[in-house]
Amino acid sequence: MRWSEWxxxxxxxxxxxxxxxxxxxxxxxxxxxxxRLGPLDIIDDCxxxxxxxxxxxxxxxxxxxxxxPWLFAxxxxxxxxxxxxxxxxxxLVGEFEQNRIFEQLSQNTIDEQIVQSQLIAKLALPFRQAIxxxxxxxxxNAEAARKLRISETAVKVRVHRGIAxxxxxxxxxx
Amino acid sequence: xxxxxxxxxxxxxxLKPVRPAxxxxxxxxxxxxxxxxxxxxxxxxxxxxxVGAWQQLVxxxxxxxxxxxxxxxVICFALIVFRSSFPGMHYRxxxxxxxxxxxxxxTQYLVGLWRPAISPLPLGERHWCWLEIIVYSLPLMVLALxxxxxxxxxxxxxTACSYCLAGGILPAVYMQLAxxxxxxxxxxxxxxPGLSMTLLGFLFARCYTKxxx
Lengths: 174, 213
What we know:
The complex is a heterodimer. Chain A is mostly helical. In chain A, about 75% of the residues lie in helices and about 0% in strands. Chain A has helices at about 1-10, 15-35, 45-55, 65-85, 95-115, 120, 125-135, 140-150, 150-174. Chain A is elongated and about 55 Å long. Chain B is about 75% helix and about 0% strand. The chains are: A mainly alpha, B mainly alpha.
């Protein structure tokens, strides 16, 4: 209710209301994403991207409609987009770090990581493996294919379907 | 976290008042109104509609049903266009409804190949009806693109394909009245060009992905 009022004030150009809104939302979004996707390095970028999207889309908020569905639609849309765009992890860490992460994953610490990201844990194992390797560990499709002993196309299909399932799960939560 | 705080500061300092966008229903109604007036006016301007078409519409229930299902499909897809351009709006049922209406519309003409609603006659034949449909649908799509571009389409491909489909069907529906009535002619020269406009949705969708990237 308060967020909705602040957003209405924002549409009228109230800078103070907007600052309060963004400050509260940024914390909420960050906690939400961590609870859903795990403590990833991309979370801060994701929050920033969502705030920019909220800014761009602020005129599409209809004051007579609830605020949360509008907000969460943007959060889900942007966070999934960020996850999709997340290319090779080589951009973020070196190959050594990649292998270390994979070794950890191989030693079943994957479960611990997945517990933190409950949403991914709801995916079936083949989709979960493909997403964890390509999106969270940052292996390329070819590298993930070798590790999973399947074709590169199969990895792509699993990632694509996995993200589609994540989207559905997020929508169900919404 | 510092980066997020900086972003908040920068967004707050740049804040300008905005007018909330019209509701999706109103935008869809506006688009449909402008498009219908345009299609009717231009079709009429190029050549008069088939003699007795309105009479046939009133006196032949099956012909009326064919037209109504197509109009309902256009309305569904127009609503999808604008509802999918507002975050948090539901439109999945509309997609189902639109596709069912579309299938019903096409099926009626497939049945019409054996049992036509109206006796086939070359009366009112327009030699370039298929080209007219393609050309008339383009401004409708561009208008929808302009109207949705400043909104926030969550699924650009669906939005773009929906208005390309609606924009393609609308002139095809009016061509049912304007051109000759013959099921195979309607299927090949009216419905097929109208539906094939959906493919342009892939092109139009790129306009959004670039602007949101």
